[in-house]
Design goal:
The complex is a heterodimer. Chain A is an alpha+beta fold. Chain A contains 15 helices and ten strands. Chain A is 38% helix and 11% strand. In chain A, helix 8 packs across helix 9. Chain A starts with 14 loop residues before the first helix and ends with a strand. The chains are: A alpha+beta, B alpha+beta. Chains A and B meet through helix 1, helix 3 and helix 6 of A and helix 1, helix 2, helix 3 and helix 4 of B.
């Protein structure tokens, strides 16, 4: 034995196994011995090897444990009698004998809440900093790995989620940080923040903590005004229902963050009531919680796009809640082969009641429409449509507790 | 070493998902299953991290004045507990690299130790674990001709496909030619038109195809997520591939 390789006993026998084991040990020890001269690095000292194989000692441990595994495969291939074909459990590889229910029981009793939302919340609280860090530094990927069986395939992931110069300019415009003649608009600023998060692939739940008080208050004021000036089931001049109360039991209400005494409403802002308050392009349609005193206390929505990417909520999750990468869908424009448009230039399947009576159009046509930066009131559509073409962007769940705004 | 690491390295996964069969024999119960890698077709290291994850880990490690995010498996408190499944993936990557380096030819279905020098074998070992952009495509295991890992074994001709509960069923004519004497067959489907294209396999994601199960001389199945589809006549090809495995009759565990 050399270099302190503590080789395990091999519980399989046979001529082929013995020959292989000898070759394995000899090669493993020579790999360790010649590591410094043969494990290549580039001109900047960066290893050619994947992590964690950059570490000689880690590889040594894996080589030692891999011997039993590799020789087991050789035994399987060679056949023959003796241990290794019909063998007992003491020589068999097996997983730690915990069922998923047992693991969940242990984790729960350790005090951990094993959901992406709670883990992200814990990350924000524990990571410190003021303001708290956004989840764009790799934690999102780690959580995705945890819940979705392994890391994202790098071949299919767009690595560059940073804003382009053009997008940054658009963002600056929404923040009114440039000397241009835009009036100060808290809702436009919020829309800019959401768009930036979408384009940055930051799908952390957007909460009231991400807003300064004046923006939070402005959103609440706009929603309150909409609620106060409209009636249940009132139909707008544009033909849509302004607000509809959702019939939910207490458990369903709690999913939306509503208490039993609250009412939950679907608000539709595709009308003059929404336009007048700048709510159409911020929310479109949103779920709004109203308390027993008639005060707006929460709004939840998904900042996603039929001409970009959408969140698949078919698992029963509600808008405004966290989601996994496997729930990102291509927008309806792309999922449906042929679409037409509704009265708001959003694509809808052919045959949808109220759709514009025009010839069906292809996703390409719709995308080109939305790639026009000069569509009135549609600032940001071109950015979303372009990002989609570049395989970029993640929908952002919005969950704003407006009680204290 | 962390207990989770130790358990992961000693107690390997049986990967029983692919068709474990339980057979009752008399008063005893025998379990038949096949030991294989988590990814039974490919050789690409499964330990690859996506760029964001890697940047995070490396960034944090650099702040701690160490550029390796796992400094040693022997440490009781590594900077990052990567979890037992990840450790098992690392182990499988190294095991595959050793099998590729040691065994003769393309290292498939053989137990014969190759005749190359120790230096040549080390080159293959390292080459198996290199990042994609640094791989030497002229030697094992990435070489694309002769002993190339992804070399096509034969070509079958699908004539009908259907899908039920995310299992694709393929009928070929003539017979597909895959014998049940081996358990390591895979395919790359390449159908031409309409809904049939949803049965295709991307070689960028699965360079050596996906594993299949043989039903009979003209039929095989594979996992393929999609809507249920009635039997549909198709044209195209199915490239038959060979992965990690061997003669299936030798791959049984038996607990009585």
């Amino acid at each position: 034995m050399s270099y302190n390789f503590d080789w395990p006993e091999i519980p399989f026998t046979g001529e082929e196994v013995e020959e292989f084991v000898d070759a394995y040990k000899e090669l493993a020890e020579s790999i360790y011995e010649n590591w410094n001269g043969e494990a290549k690095t580039n001109g900047y000292g960066v290893s050619y090897l994947e992590d964690p194989f950059t570490n000689r000692d880690v590889v040594k441990e894996l080589l030692i444990y891999g011997l039993v595994y590799a020789s087991f495969i050789i035994k399987q291939r060679s056949g023959g009698g003796g241990p290794g074909t019909n063998f007992d459990l003491s020589a068999s590889p097996y997983k730690p004998p915990l069922s998923s229910e047992e693991k969940e029981y242990i984790i729960k009793n350790l005090g951990c809440i094993f959901t992406p939302e709670e883990m992200k919340s814990a990350w924000k609280k524990n990571a410190g900093g003021n303001p708290p860090p956004r989840l764009n530094d790799g934690v999102e990927d780690l959580l995705d790995d945890l819940f979705n069986n392994g890391p994202t395939d790098p071949e299919t992931q767009n690595e560059d989620c940073n804003l382009t110069i053009r997008e940054q300019g658009l963002y600056n415009l929404t923040q009114q940080t440039l000397p241009v003649s835009l009036s100060f608009d808290p809702l436009l600023r919020t829309k800019g923040e959401l768009l930036k998060a979408y384009l940055n692939c930051d799908n952390d739940v957007f909460t009231e903590n991400d807003l300064p008080p004046f923006q939070c208050g402005a959103i609440k004021g706009a929603l309150q005004g909409f609620y106060d000036e409209t009636l249940p089931e009132q139909v707008s001049e544009q033909g849509n229902v302004l607000r509809t109360q959702m019939n939910l039991n207490n458990q369903q209400k709690s999913q939306y963050g509503a208490s039993p005494s609250d009412t939950v409403w679907q608000f539709n802002f595709y009308n003059s009531f929404g336009d007048n308050r700048d709510l159409r392009t911020l929310f479109g349609i949103a779920t709004v919680i109203v308390n027993s005193s008639g005060q707006i206390v929460r709004v939840v929505d998904d900042f996603d796009f039929v001409y970009g990417r959408e969140i698949d909520r078919s698992d029963g999750s509600v808008p405004g809640s966290g989601y996994g990468s496997n729930q990102i869908l291509e927008g309806l424009c792309y999922r449906e082969h042929w679409v037409t448009t509704d009265g708001n230039a959003n694509c809808v399947p052919v045959g949808t009641p109220g759709a514009v009576p025009e010839a069906p159009r292809s996703p390409q046509d719709i995308r080109n429409d939305n790639n026009n930066p000069f569509l009135p009131g549609e600032v940001g559509r071109w950015a979303v449509a372009t990002a989609k073409e570049n395989n970029r962007g993640k929908p952002v769940p919005i969950n704003l507790n407006l009680s204290n705004c | 070493m962390l207990t989770t690491y130790s358990l992961a390295l000693k107690h390997l996964s049986l990967n029983t998902g692919a068709g474990v069969t339980n057979v009752s024999i008399g008063s005893s119960l025998a379990f038949f299953d096949m030991q294989n890698f988590k990814d039974p077709m490919n050789i690409t290291p499964s330990s690859e991290l996506n760029s964001n994850c890697s940047r995070y880990m490396i960034g944090r490690a650099s702040m701690l004045d160490d550029f390796k995010y796992i400094t040693s498996l022997d440490l009781e408190s590594p900077y990052h507990d990567v979890g037992y499944e990840k450790i098992q993936e690392y182990l499988e990557d190294v095991t595959k690299a050793m099998l590729l380096a040691i065994l003769d030819g393309d290292s498939k279905r053989t137990t014969t130790v190759g005749i190359g020098s120790s230096y040549e074998k080390r080159k293959i070992f390292f080459n198996s674990l290199y990042k994609e952009r640094y791989r030497d495509k002229t030697i094992k295991p990435w070489v694309n001709s002769g002993i190339g890992w992804t070399a096509t074994y034969s070509i079958a001709n699908p004539v009908f496909v259907s899908r039920t509960s995310n299992i694709a069923i393929v009928t070929t004519s003539p017979a597909h030619g895959m014998t049940t004497a081996y358990d390591d067959w895979g395919i790359v489907m390449n159908l031409n038109t309409g809904i049939a294209t949803s049965f295709n396999i991307s070689t960028s994601t699965y360079p050596n195809g996906v594993p299949i199960k043989i039903v009979d001389a003209n039929t095989f199945t594979y996992t393929n997520v999609g809507i249920n589809t009635a039997a549909t006549a198709v044209t195209g090809t199915a490239d038959v591939k060979v992965g990690w495995g061997g003669t299936s009759i030798n791959l049984h565990l038996y607990f009585a």
